[in-house]
Design goal:
Layout: H1 3-14, H2 16-25, E1 27-28, E2 34-35, H3 36-41, H4 46-57
Antiparallel strand pairs: 1-2
Helix pairs in contact: 1-2
Length: 74
């Protein structure tokens, strides 16, 4: 997962305002007590951060994989 895909997944799942708040305010214990933004800045891959955020917020597993991918061009 690229950073841009992570950002798109956040907006798609949570909306832009709430997603931004989660990214900068929610401390994720499994990422060493970092927020998602801090974890990415520390070099943790966006995919790992996305999965940790999904687990912490109760996102259904059906939404975890493929999140953030742009729709195929037709």
């Amino acid at each position: 997962m690229k950073l841009s895909e992570f950002q798109r997944a956040i907006v798609d799942e949570f909306g832009s305002v709430y997603g931004q708040a989660l990214t900068i305010d929610l401390v994720l214990g499994e990422l060493g007590g970092r927020t998602a933004a801090q974890a990415i800045e520390a070099g943790i891959p966006p995919r790992e951060v996305w999965f940790a955020l999904c687990r912490e917020t109760g996102v259904p597993q059906a939404h975890w994989h493929g999140a953030g991918k742009p729709a195929p061009k037709r």
